[in-house]
Structure formats: C-alpha cells, structure tokens
UniProtKB/TrEMBL annotation:
It comes from Leptospira ilyithenensis. It comes from the Bacteria. This is Small ribosomal subunit protein bS18. Coiled coil: none annotated. Binds as a heterodimer with protein bS6 to the central domain of the 16S rRNA, where it helps stabilize the platform of the 30S subunit. Pfam families: Ribosomal_S18 (PF01084). The keyword Magnesium does not apply.
C-alpha cells in the first residue's frame, strides 16, 4: 500500500512528507570526540568549559542541542553536578 492509498501526507508532485524532498541538514558532531584535548581538560574545576553547557538559568543543555554523544553528555552532566555541589556553578539563577 502506498502512502497515497492510505491517505498519508504527500506534498505536491509526491515529494514525501509535507513536500520536503531529501531535506538535508548538517549532523552535529560531538565536540569532545572531535577534540580529545577538550575532553582531557573537562573537570569540575574548569568552570569556563562547563558554563558553555549550562543555560543562563542554570539548566544543563540537552544532547540534541549541544550535539555531544551520550557517553560524553553523561560525563559532562556528572562534572556539572560536582561543580554545583561545591559551589562553583549555581543550581539556579534567580
């Protein structure tokens, strides 16, 4: 059964879902996988690196936005939590 027979979403000229034909986007690359020196420098005391991955309200930025892989996002989140617990990073900004 085709999408047309099932009543699926087809754009003009049958260009796939919602009319996009081969919509390409640039895949995000993990900064830590690309630059091993950055990963070696990742520590709870390096607030300058950790602040890039925290919003202005104090939340950890998710993987889908930063582009980091799951392994390095876990390491990053752990170091941010360590830094928060000793007072280098805020839990939340008022």
């Amino acid at each position: 059964m085709d999408d047309d027979e099932k009543g699926g979403f087809r754009g003009k000229d049958g260009e796939g879902k919602f009319g996009r034909k081969n919509a390409k986007y640039k895949k995000k690359v993990c900064k830590f996988c690309a630059d091993k020196a950055l990963l070696a420098g990742l520590d709870y005391k390096r607030v300058d690196i950790l602040e890039r991955f925290v919003t202005n309200r104090g939340k950890i930025i998710p993987r889908r936005i930063t582009g980091s892989c799951a392994k390095h996002q876990r390491v990053l989140a752990r170091e941010i939590r360590k830094s928060r617990s000793i007072g280098l990073l805020p839990f939340k900004v008022l």
